[in-house]
Amino acid sequence: MTELAISFDDISRAHERIAKVAYRTPVLTSRMADERAGGQLFFKCENQQRTGAFKFRGAYNALARLTAEQRARGVVAFSGGNHAQGVALAAQLLDMQAVIVMPQDAPSSKIEATRAYGSEILLYDRYRDDRVALGRQLADERGLTLIPSYDHADVMAGQGTLAKELFEQAGPLDMLIAPLGGGGMLSGCALAAKAMHPDCMVIGVEPAAGNDGQSSLRSGRIVHIDVPRTIADGAQAQHLGNLTFPVIQRHVDDILTVGDAELVGAMRFLFDRMKTVAEPTGCLALALAFSRQLDLKGKKVGIVISGGTIDAGRFGDLIRAASPL
Fold first, then answer.
1. Prediction pTM value
2. Is 306 an active-site residue?
3. The CATH number of domain 56-146 is 3.90.226.10
4. Looking at residue 112, what is its pLDDT?
5. Is domain 8-54+153-320 classified as CATH 3.40.50.150?
């Protein structure tokens, strides 16, 4: 059996490493959400994490593991926003230089927040430019360490800490539903879930316009797609990673999809009924629970709300278009 990039010990050590800087985010419940989904839902609210998303966990863990020489040279990362902010804040806390390659159409709030942490921002066209090539070029030219947004063992281990926390807070779960982009969070969470409660089913969920993860899991190989056009900008990855895919193959039971309209409905529910602001990507898990694609009757289900970094104007425009629940 092929050895995986990370183990539960790596996640546990990452949890200790980030304990003094990352928030232990709350777990919320909602009677109305339970009634609509048909099961007992436990919301892990990473929208209340530092920088507004789970990405800070993996970013800090990865940067904290660098050598003194690497820290002195600095890092480069490419990201649509949440990984960018996570790396930028982690670099600030560790007194490091960071260069962030971001798509020019990323939400302005994410660009400005990243810049506010002191990072240098370089913009690119997500539909024409190769962000991986740009990141590698900067790393070579400036001697920076490249910190990928998901296909990196320390990033994966850091993201897995949120599932470890959720099980510590909510107890054993029958199912864990988590958003899927490139697989850093899903792989880390799946490994943690299976280590802490082997009978827990782990379900990934991605936007219907970008079902590369679903296609990869079902075909047994990494499937590459064009940049998906979806409001879930945090899940616009074009393929899973070489490190994340084997973990997902071994520990994820299935990957399902939801449409943009379902994401907006989940956003409005969280705002109207739970007074919680989440970005579209952050609503993937709840949208799936509400879709009734899964039988949740009598089950304890973990729902990862992965982030809440969205412009107020954009948030208002989206939820106004959704029907009240």
1. 0.94
2. yes
3. no
4. 86
5. no
